[in-house]
Amino acid sequence: MAMKPLAGPAIPAPTPIRADRRARQQQLAASALARARRRLRLAWAAAAVLALLAGREVLILREAAHWDARIAALQTEPEAVQAALRHALAQVGPAAVPAAEPVSEPASAASAPVARPAWLDEDVPREWRFAEAQVLAAAGEHEAALARYRSLIEDPRLGLPARYNSGNVLMQQAFKLRESPSPGLAVPVIELAKEGYRQVLRLDPAHWPARYNFERAQRLLPDPEQDDSEAAGPPENAERAATTMRGVSQGLP
C-alpha cells in the first residue's frame, strides 16, 4: 500500500512589499559602495596633491638654503667675493651706467624697448642682488652698486638698508670727486646722499648710523637755509635742528 506524502503548510509567494524592500536595500548598498569609492578616489587625489606640494616646498627650501650659503660665503671666503664680483660685472646691464642723451635718434630706435639687465632676473633672490651691490661698492664699482640698491628701494624688508647703503656709496663717490681736479662735481652727489639719509630718517628716526652720516654730509655741505635759521632762533622742527647743527654730533660718536 503506497504511502501518501504528508501535506505541509503551503509556502506563500513573496508579496510585492517584501520585494520592494529588498530592492531598496540593494539600491542603498550600491549607493553606499559608490560613495565609498568616490571618497577613496578623492582621498588618493588629495594625497597626490599634498605629495606634489610637499615636494615643491622641499625644492624651494633647498634652493633657499643654496642661496643662503652663497650669500654667507661672501662674508668669509675671498674667492666667493671675487667670483661674485666677476659675475656681477659681467651682468651689469644698460641700467647700471646712465647713458648720455643722444643728439639725434631715429624713431625706430626711440620706440625700441630697453633691454632688461640680466641681474634683474626674478629667479634670483633679492638678497643676492643686495649682496652683489655690497661687493660692487667695496670694489669701487659705484654705479653698478647704486643700480642694484635702487632696484630694491621699494622692497619692504631690504628697502631701508638699500637706501642707507646708497647714501654711503654716494658719499664715497663724493670723497673721490673732492680729491679730483674738479671738486665742484661732488656738490650734487653730496646733496643726493643727504636726501637718501633724510628718507631713511623719515622711515626710521632712530636709525643712528644714518643720522651720524647725515651730519657728516651736512658739515661738508650745509643746507643753504642753515645760516638764516640759526640767526632767526631755534627752528620749530626738532629733528631738523638735531641734524643740521654745525660741529654738534647728535648721533654715534
TrEMBL record:
Organism domain of life: Bacteria
Cited Gene3D superfamilies: Tetratricopeptide repeat domain
Ranges for region Disordered: 219-253
Identification of the protein by name: MxaK protein
Protein's organism: Aquariibacter lacus
